[in-house]
Amino acid sequence: MFRVKKLQIRYHEKMLVDISFDIKDAFALVGQSGSGKSLTLKALLGMLPHELDVVLETEASFPLQRGKTVSIVPQNPFTALSPLTKIVDQFMKDTNAAIKYMQYVELDKNLLFRYPSELSGGQLQRVIIAMALSSEPELLLLDEPTTALDSRTKESILTLIDKLRQKIGYKILFVTHDIDATTSLCSEIAILKEGKIIEEGPVEEVLKHPRTEYAKTLIASNFKYRRKRS
Q1: Is 216 domain-assigned?
Q2: If 0-12 CB within 10 Å is exposed, 13-18 middle and 19+ buried, where does residue 213 land?
Q3: DSSP conformation class of 107
């Protein structure tokens, strides 16, 4: 288990985030823009600006080391890669290792020798996952990784991440506003509002029986938007 015993982020006297949670396997942190999701991710990566006061207490069998024990899959693969550099040269591994992780994400090794513009959005997201996994992390952070994908590609990416989790054994923190996506990947969910967790529990239980009006509205609006798109 990876436990965030305490995460507090302040700007001067204002508390921006004050939460704690446990990640048993795959945990979703859901909330609207400005709820504190991105701050939480940046805190775990050690990437918050110095003007913020941060208290982070964790309990795990590994230290938090960005690019080693902790990796991130960002929201937009198009901005995460250099458009002028071939894929193979953007791996922090040699070619043989890059081929290995491309196989993990079910991509042909020949794609390594192409430029990002020559790949589809789904292929690029798989490349980013391969790069994130190449450091063999204990904790994989997912920052809205399916936002720019169509529904079919989104489902295939989430299925792949879950399959690899079971194979490799990393834990997942999935930060998203897309509640529907959490049902494909996560066993536990927390609803974040203004830097505080207001509901937490098994995904199915929280989605079917939300207790707070905020959670009810958030869940209802998410699935209403999903029906409009389908």
Answers
A1: yes
A2: exposed
A3: -
CATH classification of the domain holding 10: 3.40.50.300
User: How far apart, in whole angstroms, are the C-alpha atoms of residue 9 and residue 52?
Assistant: 7
Structural domains of the chain, count: 1
Closest CA to 46 of 147, 168, 158, 139: 139
Residue 175: domain span: 2-69+171-229
Residue found by looking up tokens 């960005």 in the block: 66
Helix (H, G, I), strand (E, B) or coil at 23: strand
In whole angstroms, give the CA distance from residue 23 to residue 14.
Answer: 27
pTM over cut 0.85 = yes
Gap between the Cα atoms of 127 and 14, Å rounded:
39
In the sheet with 14-23, reading across from the earlier edge strand, the strands are: 14-23, 2-11, 53-59
The answer as to whether 52 is a domain residue is: yes
Each residue's pLDDT tens digit, 71-116: 999 988 888 999 999 999 999 899 999 999 999 999 999 999 999 9
- Tokens (6 digits) for 46: 């050690």
